[in-house]
Design goal:
Oligomer: single chain
Shape: globular
Strand content: 15-25%
Order of helices and strands: HHHHHHHEEHEEEEHEEEEEEEEEE
Number of domains: 2
Distance between the termini: 28 Å
Length: about 325
């Protein structure tokens, strides 16, 4: 893996212009430096383009800038492009090439070495899909609910929790005034593994969830990790959100079991589930005609003691990812 080159002396000027309120001038200078192949400018412009704000959000353009930054020798751009190449977000997917890049990164980066170790411990085919899957226990026909015992290993669950620390944040909703307030329905703390930081190990786990739910990885939203402390809960709700390409299924990963309370309750049927570490619960929120299945209403009951950790992936009718 190439070493990062020394920054161009005008890069500091571009950043200073942006921070002083002369944003358009700063972005223009950053673009000039990026066109000249300056690695840090390419990375900063890629991040800005990916997130949007100072410039229009454009995932495909952002991905291309990460690729160019990677070729210019920027380590973080290299890792970002590896992640996107593994998942196929905003461009082509090439799993073998992504893993070859990851092996190169792992030589000098301990974090990427941990990602590679998780990949090497998985039973995957040459495209990163699971080679074997556990048989389901069908818990309910109405709503359709299946439990896949030990679908994730304890080490994989621990790895997902490592990716969440230290970025746990309260689950928020908009207040209708341009701000955010604590979600009155879900009182947990959350951490979203958004597309750019979805490393190849997390992506392989998302592909496993897709296989367990009989969907494609592209139908899923970003994986959410949730932490429920004593007294915290997810009050009765439905995941179905209607509209075009709405949510039709949910996959929940139980990441630990050393807590009391916190069961998943299907309110209208009384089905109550408390998975063990690594179990995956898959349930359907939509009827065959695409309308809401009211029997899918469910709740995460209050945790009584200990801390509950959960992974959640909402799955749409068709492709959702960029």
């Amino acid at each position: 893996m190439q070493q990062q080159q020394q920054h161009h002396p005008m890069l500091a000027q571009a950043i200073a212009l942006a921070r002083s309120g002369r944003l358009a001038e700063g972005i223009a200078l950053l673009r000039r430096l990026a066109e000249a192949g300056e690695p840090e400018a390419l990375f900063l412009l890629a991040e800005t383009t990916w997130v949007g704000g100072p410039v229009p959000q454009d995932f495909a353009r952002g991905r291309e800038l990460f690729r160019r930054g990677s070729e210019a020798g920027h380590p973080r751009a290299h890792m970002a492009y590896t992640n996107l190449l593994a998942s196929g977000i905003a461009g082509e997917r090439d799993w073998p090439a992504a893993i070859a890049r990851l092996r190169l990164e792992a030589r000098s980066d301990p974090g990427r070495a941990r990602v590679l170790a998780r990949i090497d411990a998985m039973s995957l085919d040459d495209q990163g899909d699971p080679a074997i899957l556990p048989a389901p226990d069908r818990l309910s026909d109405a709503p359709a609910v299946q439990l896949f015992p030990a679908a994730f290993t304890a080490e994989e669950c621990a790895y997902l929790l490592e990716t969440a620390d230290p970025v746990w944040k309260p689950c928020l909703v908009t207040d209708g005034k341009g701000g955010y307030v604590q979600d009155p329905i879900r009182t947990a703390e959350g951490s979203t593994t958004h597309w750019l930081v979805e490393d190849p190990a997390v992506h392989a786990l998302n592909r496993r969830l897709a296989a367990l739910s009989d969907t494609t990885p592209e139908q899923g939203e970003a994986l959410q990790l949730l932490r429920y402390r004593p007294g915290q809960q997810y009050r009765a709700h439905v995941d179905y959100d209607g509209g075009d390409n709405g949510r039709i299924k949910t996959a929940l990963v139980y990441l630990n079991e050393d807590y009391e309370g916190g069961e998943t309750l299907f309110v209208k049927t009384g089905l109550k589930v408390k998975g063990r570490t690594g179990d995956v619960l898959v349930f359907v929120s939509a009827r065959p005609d695409g309308s809401l299945d009211p029997l899918s209403e469910h709740a995460g009951l209050p945790v009584e003691s200990g801390v509950k950790y959960l992974g959640s992936r909402w799955i749409h009718e068709r492709r959702y990812s960029a």
